[in-house]
Amino acid sequence: MSQAAVIFDYNRTIFDPDSAGLMPGAKAILEALERKGVTLFLVAKGDDERRKQINQLGLMSFFKKIIVNQSKSADDYRSCIALCPEGTKFFAVGDRVKEEIRHANECGMTTIWFRNGKFAAEEPSADAERPTHIISSLGEAEMLIV
């Protein structure tokens, strides 16, 4: 069986800025994927404060690499690909079709749009923004990641 890896978006996918805590099901999905041997990555917008927040939430140990930049790009996703063996099947989970889904599609990943919250109504306007799958709860992602 080939190896799998998942790149998660942080804000509004793993972290809920409205409650200043984890999104419902976030810890459970990370633990379940970790048990399955899936390599996990995190891509976040922000600065050192964001990195400190991720650490305070006890999330650092789940991820092989955490990328925190002022803006996201497909290069962030490519840098994660470079850390995995050839043939790894990549998935990306994010709440924005115009950001995470587009960047991951540009890298040839299977994309999972967590259609929830603030950007749930933000429809794809280009083929590169069309997700492979759409979920409304993080728990649904586990069944799609194989």
SSE topology:
Layout (H helix, E strand, L loop, with lengths): L3 E6 L5 E2 L4 E2 L3 H10 L3 E7 L2 H9 L8 E5 L4 H8 L7 E6 L2 H10 L3 E5 L18 E3 L3 H6 L2
Parallel strand pairs: 1-4, 1-6, 4-5, 6-7, 7-8
Antiparallel strand pairs: 2-3
Tell me about this structure:
Helix content is 29%, strand content 25%. It starts with a strand and ends with a helix. It is globular and about 35 Å long. It has one domain: HAD superfamily/HAD-like (Rossmann fold, 3-Layer(aba) Sandwich), CATH 3.40.50. With 146 residues, the chain is an alpha/beta fold. It has helices at 26-35, 48-56, 74-81, 97-106, 139-144; strands spanning 4-9, 15-16, 21-22, 39-45, 65-69, 89-94, 110-114, 133-135. Strand 4 (39-45), helix 2 (48-56) and strand 5 form a beta-alpha-beta unit. It has a six-stranded parallel sheet, with helices on both faces. It has a two-stranded antiparallel sheet with strand order 2-3. The longest helix has 10 residues, at 26-35. It contains five helices and eight strands; from the N terminus they run E-E-E-H-E-H-E-H-E-H-E-E-H.
Strand content: 15-25%
Q: Tell me the major beta sheet.
A: 6 strands, parallel
**Name of the CATH homologous superfamily:** HAD superfamily/HAD-like
Question: Do you know the CATH architecture?
Answer: 3-Layer(aba) Sandwich
H/I helix tally:
5
Examine the coordinates and then state which fold CATH places here, giving the name of the CATH topology. Answer: Rossmann fold
**What would CATH call the class?**
Alpha Beta
Separation of termini?
10 Å
> What best-fitting shape do the alpha-carbon axes yield?
globular
Task: Give the helix proportion (percent range).
Answer: 25-40%
Rg: 14 Å
Question: What integer is the average pLDDT?
Answer: 93
**What's the number of extended β-strand segments?**
8
The SS-based structural class is alpha/beta
Question: Order of helices and strands, N to C?
Answer: EEEHEHEHEHEEH
Strand numbers in spatial order across the main sheet: 5-4-1-6-7-8
Low-confidence stretches: none
